[in-house]
Amino acid sequence: MQFMITTFLSICFLFICLASTGADEAEVGFNYVPGSDIGPDRWGVINENWTTCGTGREQSPIDITEERIQEQPDLGRLLQKYQPAKATLKNQHIYLEVEWNGNAGSIIINGFTYNVSQFHWHSPSEHTINGQRYDLEMHIVHQNIVNEIAVIGVLYAYGPPDPFIAKLEPFIRNANNVEEQPIGVVDPREAQGVNTTKYYRYMGSLTVPPCTEGVFWTVLDNVRTVSIEQVNLMKQALPEEFRNNSRPLQNINVRTIGLHQNLKIRK
């Protein structure tokens, strides 16, 4: 119960920090600039509510390395019950965020239902796989009734434009002028993509202050493509100090990484 209360208060604090769509670096209280007084290596000491950023043992993001991966068939396929719902694009200044206004469905992890609430982008990717960093990462954020969080990470490499992001481009172009704009109906299945037969699962944290732990991370192995122009368009909507908005890799410590993959049986 104490963990749930602590998690709830930490999450509330995070949402208060990001609630002001007019927030600049001073109001947010942190940035991603290496060596800055409020840069990533200082997050755990610049605010008494963010100490977990420096002292936590299950922090995110991480490098998903072969030696820490354990195949776990019991993880099963991702159980998803997504549906289209109206959404809003918000310029949170640390990233661009699409928030669903209605019921866009849920995923099920360990028998618990997590409702999808929003997704946002980090560039370059926050997670790496065997040391390889990608050009963009989408985080699809879910929450259950006791405010525990589950996030799906989708990785992108430069290549042909992403069709889903292309649909959002008119609104992204306007994000410099309008900090919150309705964008119509958005389907979470399009955001995530259809190939979820292989994914990695580990316990981690939020990747922005207050770095709350106890987050179920699911990082999809299927890497999508995105154009340089699409990524630059998103970056141009953000203040300069947030255009490279990836937290440095964190120590894995004693954690293992679960792997689920559907393999065809050779006859």
TrEMBL record:
Protein name in UniProt: Carbonic anhydrase
Broad EC category: lyase
EC number(s) stated in the UniProt entry for this protein: 4.2.1.1
Swiss-Prot/TrEMBL catalytic activity: hydrogencarbonate + H(+) = CO2 + H2O
Taxonomic placement: Eukaryota, Viridiplantae, Streptophyta, Embryophyta, Tracheophyta
Pfam families documented for this protein: Carb_anhydrase
Biological process according to GO: one-carbon metabolic process
Entry keywords, A to Z: Lyase, Metal-binding, Signal, Zinc
Organism expressing this protein natively: Rhynchospora tenuis
Transmembrane stretches, start-end: none
